[in-house]
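The data are quoted verbatim for reference:
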Amino acid sequence: MQMPRRMAKRMTRLLLVGLALCLTPFAAAAATLDTIAARGAVRIGYIADQAPFSSGRPGAEPVGYAIDLCGRIADEIEHQFPQLRRDYVETTLANGFDAVKNEEIDLLCGSITVNLNRRETVDFSQPIFLTGASALLRKDSPDYLQTLFLDGPAVHAVSERVATNVIGMRANTTTAAALREALAIQESKTRLADFATHEDGLKALEDRKIDAYIADQVLLISLAKRARDPAALEVGDRMFTHEPYAIALRRDDADFRLLADRALTDFYLSDDFLPLLESYFGAEAPMLHTQIIMQHVP
């Protein structure tokens, strides 16, 4: 019995649609490397004020621990595509994840915390660093802040009589979200102030517009060194969040993530990894080396 022509056309359309749906995951799996090959360059996104992980200035390539690790991944890609260019693209924390999703950048490098909300938009490499949020304080910040964030006994705060009870933080960070959530469930007179950059938060702390600046501890250590008077500040030694850092990648591309993880594992197990940590983190390097090796994908 011959099938009517109209029905035959409908069946053909259904078969084509079904074939397209079946092929979609395979196309996505190769998307990143195909894009890089066609472009002739890997695009490395970075956030300029996240020293010592990523920092940059006009006319110069960015530098930092995360930038160096992204360079190791680029080395691995270059084995497949010789003479590959490396295009560095400055972005922001607010826009970086969408830039990865929209294929504007291939790797997002910096102090990028992994969490479940962000994994709805992007994927991540294996961890590159482990830290947690704390506070940067003036030595005359209010006693209650010193008690919260410092292990030692609080000294009387000269400014406590006129304390403004304002805590600063960078907008769009996981730390800011955690702090807002904590204050929302308790009665508190503490006010929160958002800043576009860590440098803006540091200036506000030094100018006494805020009493503490909250960020990941490792970023605060670097930030304090760039203060007008580093001796007037102290970094909290208590941490109230868990912040695993990783490199953001496109979702649904297991092959590219495997390439990135393989490059990182090879580097972690090499003789070059500890010296790199020492160059950025000094005396903390051996402890950090142990932490990362304990968390790496073998």
Notes: The radius of gyration is 24 Å. The chain has two domains: 30-130+245-295, 133-235. Residues 14-29, 154-163 have pLDDT under 50 and may be disordered.
